[in-house]
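LOG
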Amino acid sequence: TNTLIAAKDGSIYDRALVNPDRNNFAPRLGAAWAPTDRTVVRAGYGKSYIHFNRLGGENLLSFNGPHIVGLNISQTPSQGLCVGNANPTTCFRTTQQGYPEGFNTPANFNPLNVRVNYIPRDTPTGNVQSWHVSVQREILHNLLVDVGYVGNRSRDILILGDFNQARPNGATESTSLQARRPIAGFQEIQAAFAGGKGDYQALQVKVERRYTRGLYLLNSFTWSRARDNASGHLETQNGDNSRVNYRDIEGEFGRSGYDQPLNNTTSVVWELPFGQGRKYGSSMNAVMDGFLGGWRVVGINTMTSGAPINLTYGPVTAATVSGLPTYRPNLTGDPHTPDGGTGNYLNPLTVELPTDRSQPFGNAPRNAARATPFYQMDLGLHKSFGLRGDERRIEARIEAFNLFNRTNFRAANGSRSATAFGTINSAFVARQLQLGVKFYF
């Protein structure tokens, strides 16, 4: 009907304006087989449905005019103070003056001036199918290796787009944005619709040495690939989009904003073999034990691929089709420079601004670039002091995060329209030291 419909008493649809999805079959299957006493094969499959979406208030139909209106008005003090009910866009209205009379009157609501929210009537519930196959083998006494394939497939995920997205101008056309919209009586109509999808596959390898003779070791390695067509609205990073090109949703499918193919984490706990009750010096006196005994070393080493960077740009007015989606530029080669320095990490010669207003969405795929890898070693040294004749003890700790003070750079600026394009201007936290005392009782 191209008009806003208000909820009313009656059926579930009348009250919610969205029909319920009553076909959410969610099976679970699992199996385990032990061909030998040192080998176990496991497999599993499950399907689940998503009833909570991290879209903030973007998928709430109650956030619509004329009763709730989100509006920003920029004011400049130099314009002079408003008098009476003057329009605050032409003068400066102080907080003490309050809102102009009739400012939020429903009769004054005009969808040409504000965005409205929309959910299609028959929106299905998003679902995720997950599966895994793994083999666990005890190689040596207390040494286990676990190798597994893990995957998931998500469909009908709630994402955002402009239902009233305009058609592009012709190559030499200059028709206004509003005149190019399919529904002339509305500005942006933000649709929360079940168009999201994602795929994830991974090889996961875990090597674990169970705690033996004071030593525990765990190494976890993942080699993965993640693809989707949008990030969570409250979880975007490095220019990635949560709002899609509504006229080409398939064109948004590509590298996920969360895709970090290589991840390796090594954890170690080592009780140094010196002091009372340990291999060396078990009979040393209390004074010597206070200096040499009761020491423990703990460490975590983390290595990951760099996070994806989505290349973006801001189109000129004549090329704009909506204020919601993310526009990507044209890509003619490797977006990274050969040296990858902080001042020129991305290459402006291979990342080009589109000049054809009929093609505002460039050919660059989502998240075409990648930030530098991340490496960090955290180390802790703990000393335990027992209290005489008591099970209580005190533990003193000195811990170093980013022990080697490696500079792990954050992502470069991926906006081709920005003067800082391709530069890296921030880094993760440098080395931190902390001291602590813990009392066990």
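LOG (cont.) second protein
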Amino acid sequence: MKFNTSGRYLISPAKITFRLLILVYLHVSISTFADEPLIIFYKKPATNWAREALPIGNGRLGGMIFGNVFNERIQFNEDSLWTGDENPSGNYETMGAYQNFGDLFIEFTPGNPNHTQVISNYSRALNISSAICTTTFTVDNIVHRREYFASHPDQVIVFRWTADKPNSISGAIKLKGAHNEKTHITDSTLSFEGKFTNRLEYCAIAKVITSAGRIITNENYLKFENCNELIVILGAKTSYTLDYSKGWMSSNPGSALLDQVNSAASKQYKELLERHTSDYQSLFNRVKVNWGTTDPKLKTQPTDVRIRAVAEEINDPELEAILFQFGRYLLISSSRRPGLPANLQGLWNDSNTPAWASDYHSNINIEMNYWPAEPANLSECHLPFFDLVLEMREPCRKATKAAFGNVRGWTLRTSHNIFGGLGWEWNIPANAWYALHFWEHFSFTRDTNFLRQIAYPMMKEVCQFWEDYLKRLPDGTLVVPNGWSPEHGPREDGVSHDQQIVWDLFTNFIEASQILDSDQEYRNKIIQMRSKLAGPKIGKWGQLQEWMIDRDDPNDQHRHTSHLFAVYPGRQITDKYTPELAQAARISLIARGTSGDSRREWVWAWRCALWARLHDGENAYKMIQYLFRYNTLPNLLGNHPPMQMDGNFGITAAICEMLIQSHTDEIELLPAIPRAWENGQVKGLMARGNIQVDLQWQNNKLSQITLLSKWPNECKIRYQNKSTTVSLPPGTPVKLTYDDAFHIIKN
């Protein structure tokens, strides 16, 4: 591999015909999880931010790694760098946007004045098992290695560069803000600061540490010469605070950030790395999956080549498993306290005018971000979403009262920022959809303190909004007035999407009230209201109607399947309890098609989950393949277009639904397993009731089950048409085998 002085390739990559490259596909049955790490890798640097750069993050601070040899770029973000405010007008154009923070550039000047800039053995990789990005290459017979990670314990990005010969690392470091800030240079530090018109103050600091060699200060950069090792500690912070009563602002962040960076810099690199990996793997290692072995020839290819191979209909089960785990990696990296929730682009954004402001969309997108949090055993990653929603309630109450008059509670528009500012069309049932996430967190964790203190009061207030807002028709039927099937069709009463979400809200509130033995009188009122809600209807061509009026077009391939909310993520429609409605949902889902407007990354994820809930593993699996084929970028990120991250999160949740479902009164095992996953096992997925489930299957049939509960529990499990009830002692795994009946293995 060869570069010219501009860093561009002199030799273009050879074109590969996948049918010739991959001669055979070897299916290998599995019995144990592979010990090897999950790695995505490439044989050339990134040239495009969205398509090729690799994301790292600690939940609050993120970076995109390019892996350039002579001019490395680390573009970085901090999740609270936003323009905008509470936006009382509701005008989308004044809501503000998530901002790019800046770039760290690390230039490489080889020590040999006669060097040829010939690069060999280049590799750029992201190990999602450890959340460490690496770039390795050889120049002038010297092997270089760079490592990058975003540490949650130390709240910084860490960069380390080593070489296998002494005094081989020379170059310069530049820190550049994204808003024309002046960079300040000292003996070993680069920094900048700024302030937006919304009063938000911000700053970034890069601390440079070398072994041997020397650092030379320049007006615009730091120069380093003849070093054995180079370490950069990068931090960024704003004055934002998640507190409406304080106007969302705290003090200038400079002093706190300097302490943070200096604290990290005082530690040895080994300690920083160990703290990072231990923290990250405490979350990531909870879940393991394996449903097949990829052809060894294909497995050695770079990830972009493998993605294109899947588009050519070549099976790559290990890449599918990586995609599943990549969604978990991204959620850990973009949604952890003390940070904000993952937005449309997760945590990563290189623009000051990003698509859709890189905001929070309340009509599917932010909800999809958090679909995998509970089933994929990352419950802690759900918490930043709750934190923001709870703090937004007061400004949302004001906006709701201004728009809808004398109603209790609050709701939202389609978009919002981090200051409680709303924009675009009103998405009236968004409050109930947000409330669903609070209920799901309880349902999976069974944390009654969370239910009593946080979820229940929030759900009750949202019920009160609907008590005031629902419209009663002459026959007594209750409908959501002036609703909207998101981004599709006219505003009118009784839109199916709205009705279904309110039904779920009422159902969840009723259960919560029963669990807490609270508010019996109000619970009875909600039970009566739920019984009067206009319910799902089957239309003239057998479809599940999207509107009260039977106007659905069988040729409509709109991207949203909003009228199927009751199938997933809701629970009003199931094969078991409402088979006729489930069949109507199938007809509607088939009619939406797989072309045109349907080809969006998040669409495949939602439809995969829908097919899984409808027990159709083959169609669910097709959605995974279509996501790879049409809407997956070379770096595995989803492409709407442009790059958008909800599909990455959503497909992880959808695969969970293919493997385990627990939204009814039982845990269903392998409800939508495709033929392609003939043999496999999963470990660490969660079912409602705070029950961990491990599964193994052979020849597309369930073989072993392990259930684990933290406290005494009893659950009903089902596989196909067989079921049994299992008593679970606290903290002790219960193992079962299956061969046309369940058998408990005695310890």
